[in-house]
Specification:
The complex is a heterodimer of chains A (67) and B (151). Chain A is mainly alpha-helical. In chain A, 55% of the residues lie in helices and 9% in strands. In chain A, helix 2 packs across helix 3. The chains are: A mainly alpha (67), B mainly alpha (151).
């Protein structure tokens, strides 16, 4: 299962979902799905988002073993 | 900021015009092409990876539906062929005659061909409907989760 700190970083940067979506070239729905852990991003999208927040992909996304 | 990309799937909406052909020329199976007009609703939708994931899932469901129905349809139509060959002992070449520009067909072959055409039409319609209803379902699922946009 993919866990993400996307919402935390977005809040830290005082950014709306729509703003982040526009910056990385996706729809707001995609950012919502990412934050809810309902969608696994492609490597390119993950790296684009990580670059926005000046963090690594590993700091932003984490795979957790399902119990 | 990324430039807004055009949605290539939306352009396939023009295939809906084939449905008009179906209405005017009595090709009832072509009326299902009107479903393609639904694709115009994606005109302003950014074709991002989540969008294409939904399209791929819908296409896979429609493809699997098509395969299953085609196998069932052909097995049923094929039964007529087996019946003709083994029960009636009537080879395909003897199932029809051509005389004076007219073709006379044995009823069993006529029935088999009609059944094959029937299945072709309906499997095509069901496949198309499966694709579009799956697409609508995934789109609805995406929109349902979107709440208020706040920092």
């Amino acid at each position: 299962m993919l866990k993400t700190k996307l919402k935390e970083y977005r809040t830290l940067y005082n950014m709306k979902q729509g703003d982040l979506a526009n910056l990385v070239g996706v729809r707001r729905e995609t950012i919502v799905h990412l934050e809810n852990g309902r969608y696994n991003p492609s490597l390119k999208l993950a790296m684009d988002i990580a670059r926005i927040f000046h963090v690594t992909v590993e700091e932003l996304f984490e795979f957790v073993d399902e119990e | 900021m990324h430039e807004k990309k055009k949605n290539p799937l939306a352009k396939l909406g023009w295939l809906g015009l084939i449905g008009i052909y179906g209405v005017f020329f009595g090709a009832w199976w072509a009326i299902c092409f009107f479903l393609f007009f639904y694709l115009f609703s994606f005109w302003n939708t950014t074709p991002d990876e989540l969008f294409w994931t939904g399209v791929k899932k819908s296409a896979i469901i429609a493809f699997c539906t098509n395969i299953v129905l085609t196998v069932i349809g052909m097995l049923i139509a094929g039964y007529f062929s087996l019946y003709r060959h083994y029960e009636l002992k009537l080879p395909y070449e003897d199932s029809y005659t051509i005389m004076d520009g007219y073709v006379s067909v044995h009823p069993i072959l006529f029935g088999q061909r009609n059944l094959e055409v029937f299945f072709f039409h309906w499997i095509f319609i069901i496949t198309l409907c499966t694709f579009f209803f799956s697409l609508m379902y995934y789109r609805h699922k995406e929109k349902k989760e979107v709440g208020e946009d706040a920092c």
